[in-house]
Amino acid sequence: MTTSTFFETTRIARARRRTGFLSVLATVTLAASLAVPAGATTAYSSQVAPLPSNSFAHPQANLLGVSCPSTGNCVAVGRYQANSGPTGVIETESHGTWLAPIIVKLPADAAASPNTALNAVKCVSVGNCVAVGQYKATNSYEGLIVTETGGVWGTGVKAPLPSDAITSTVTSLYGIDCVSTTTCVAVGQYQNAIRDQALIIRKSGGVWGGALRARLPKYAKPNFITQLDGVSCTSAGNCVAVGQFVDTSPARRAMIDTEVNGTWTSSVVAPLPTNADRNPWAGLFGIRCFSGANCVAVGVYQGPYGGQGLIDTETGGVWSSTRQAPLPSGQSVSTHAAQLLSVSCVSFGHCVAVGEDLAGINDFGVAATGTNGSWSSVVTPRPSDASTPTYGILNAISCTTATSCVGVGQYASSTGQPALITTR
Fold first, then answer.
1. 228, 214 Cβ separation under 8 angstroms
2. What is the pTM of this model?
3. Residue 133 pLDDT more than 70?
């Protein structure tokens, strides 16, 4: 896969958040069993996400982000196929019940077929959330920001861009974190006259601005495609963002950018396990940080048998721990590929990460739980109408306690590809 093809799958066509890594990295056999693999668990349950009434009869929908400010109260965001094309959708759980979904209201410059998606959401309290993504305007694709205040979702606004952005930019926001209703950081990608660039924007005092091109690691290939996929902030002006870049070899590598007291001070290459390939095709997609410069980040890298889940840990400001994510019980790296797309931690010592496990022509949603540095993985269930061969993916996870989490994604049914909600 070329670099431009890689980013085409992650940018506007992010209906499946899988980013194209597994399709390139998997070297697993196509003769794998069609049955749900060993390691499936009953600790999780799954249901079909509700969709607006104008959804296709054969649904094409995907939930890409979720945030739960308290148990039983969550917001999930994504996209679904309507008559006008891909449309942004917001799902709300209130006191344990998922309500009728909301169709995103777009800025005035949105095209007639706006090809909209919401990729991430952050709720600082029940009824106060911010979702980010992208939409198609008349001559460009723009970053989209939609805000809920007091339980009411407003009309989306166009994301600000750095001064070097081109008029016909292709922009998308992939990650967001907020420390209050007036202070947030969102990350993604935009275009300048040279190439696609990693993007950081800030909401300060309730106003979005401060758009800047992200710093890159020392050995980044000049003027090459980069993006940031996730961000976590411990306080205003103190955040860590993760993504991917191309080095001078050229090889796809994961990167970590750090903000200290309002200044983005460093960008480093993420550490990889010792079995990483020389061209590791690595990326970090999700991150969660705590005070004291302690973070957990997840993603994917190329190992000896293909793509494998990646878990990197920062302790006291040093990214000193890196490991291959374990596969569910009974699975082998020689027949399974995997990636982790999102992580949620109720404390530095207890996290849950989700993604997908690929075995031949079958995809399964997977959840990995880390307790004090020890990790284990399970295959998550799909609704009863799931099809064979199997397809399932969990794009995002939000936990309120060590045993209460909500994950979202997509699966294949007998009639289409509905959006999925998985609960622990």
1. yes
2. 0.91
3. yes
Kindly report the number of other CB atoms within 10 A of residue 388's CB atom: 12
Report the domain count for the chain.
Answer: 1
Q: Which domain holds residue 74?
A: 3-31+41-308
| 373 pLDDT higher than 50 | yes
C-alpha closest to that of 22 among 10, 34, 31, 12: 10
Indicate whether 212 belongs to any domain.
yes
pLDDT at 42: 59
pLDDT exceeds 80 at position 335:
no
Residue 319, pLDDT score: 95
Distances (CA, A) of 244 to 215, 251, 270, 309: 12, 10, 9, 15
The whole-number pLDDT of residue 281 equals 93
Residue 41: pLDDT band with limits 50, 70, 90: low
When pLDDT is cut at 50, 70 and 90, the band that residue 12 belongs to is: very low
Domain-located, residue 260? yes
Task: Report if residue 415 sits inside a domain.
Answer: no
Provide the CATH number for the domain around residue 227: 2.120.10
What is the average per-residue pLDDT within 189-194?
93
In a domain, 323, yes or no: no
Looking at residue 212, its amino acid is: L
